[in-house]
Sequence to fold (446 residues):
Amino acid sequence: MKDFVLDTNVILHDSRAIFLFEENNVLIPMTVVEELDTFKKEMNELGRNARFFSKTIDELRAQGSVAEGVLVNTKGGVLRVVRCSAEALTHLPPEMDHNLPDNRILAVALHNQEHSENKTVLVSKDTNMRIKADALELPAENYENDKVDVEDLYTGILYLNAEDEIPPSEYLLPNQYIVVRDLATGVITKEGRYDAGLGEIVPLREDLASWGLEPANDEQRYLMDLLLNDDIKLVTVSGKAGTGKSLVASSVALRKVTDEFTHRKLLISRPVMPMGKDIGFLPGTAREKLDPYMAPIYDAVEYLMSGGIADIKPAGKKRGRKSKDEEEKEYGKMGKGLLELEAAGIVEVEALLYIRGRSIPNVIMLLDECQNLNKHEIKTIVSRAGQGTKLIFTGDIEQIDSPYLDATSNGLTYLIEKFKDQKIAGHVTLTKGERSELAEIATQIL
Fold:
C-alpha cells in the first residue's frame, strides 16, 4: 500500500483522479483545496473540474470526516484531506519559501513520508514540482492514467515487405490499410483496407478525387478512401503541418454534401486556442470572434473553390474568378465561396463551446486542431453525433497549444487509441508534407 499526495494540477486535469488509485491512500493537502477554489468560477474545463471535485468531496463527507479518511472505491482506497502544520513546514530547507503553494504541498508529503508506514509518492503533472521532490528525496510521479505511448500510437497503415506474410485477420484492426511493397523496387504489389465485417482485405475506391482535388500521395489516397466510406462514422487524421489534413477532409466532406447528397450539411468547428500570446478580446459578434481561429479551414475551402463561385457547382466545372483584393473588399477575409455555401445551408461554422447539449443528425462534422482538446471534450463532441452523422477529427499532436496537454494525453491521441478496434471508425496518419518544399523542410529541421 502507498500514500499518494496529489498536486492541484492533477485534479484540474482529471477531476475523478481520486477514485483511480485502487487500494492505496490518496492525500489531498489543504493547499490544493484552496487553489482549486480560485478556479471554481471559470467557465472552462478547469473550472468544471474544480467544481466537480469540490462537489465530490462534499458528498464524501456524508461517510465521515475527510480529515480522518473516507473510502473512495470498492478496493479499500481511502481519501484524506491533510492540513499543512507548522511541524510539516520544518521539513523544508531554509531556501524554500513557506508561503508558496507548491512548497506547502511538498511539506505535507515530506511530513507524511516521515510518519507513515506506507511509501509516500507525490503525483504531479508539473515537471519542476517533480524535480524539487526528487531533490528532497521524495518519490514523485507524473499522472499518467490517461496517457498513450506515442511511439506505439496507431497509424492506421500496416506496411509489409513482399516476402512477408499478411497477418491473419485476428491480428488486423478494422479499416486498417495493408500495404505490401517490393523492397528492391519500392513498387507497391498489393494494398487494401481490412474490412472486419467481411473478414478480408478489400481494394481501394477508384473515384477518389473530390471537388477537383486529387490525392497527392498514397497516404492521402488511403485517407480519401476512408472518408468516402459511408459505413465509417468516425475518422481521425493526424499528421504534421502541411500534410493536407484539413484540405483533404474538406474536399471529401463537400463532395458528400453537394455531389452525393449523403449528408445535409458540413458543420465545421475548431478549438478557440491561440498559438503563443493572445491578442486579447476580439470585437464583434460570436461569429466574427471565431473567424480568426477558423482561417485555416476557410483557406482550404476557398482553395477548393478556386477563389469564389457564382453558384454552387460540382467539382470540375469552371468557376468565375476575382482578384484576392476584390474578394476581400467585397466579402471580407472569408471569401465569397464560403459565404455562398453558408447562405445555401451547405456549410455551418460553429464554436465548440456551443456543441454541448446539441444533438446533430445527418451532418458531416469536421473538427480541426483536435490535439488541443482533452479527453472529456472529445467525449462531449462524439456523444453529440445523431443518426447518420459522420465525424472527422484532424490534428497534429506535435503542435499543442494547451498548457495542460501533451502528445500523450491530448484528446486526439486518446480518441485514436480508444477507437482503433471499432468497425465504424478508422484512422490514417499522414507523414508526407505537400504544402511546399520550404514547409516540408521546416517541419523536419526546426
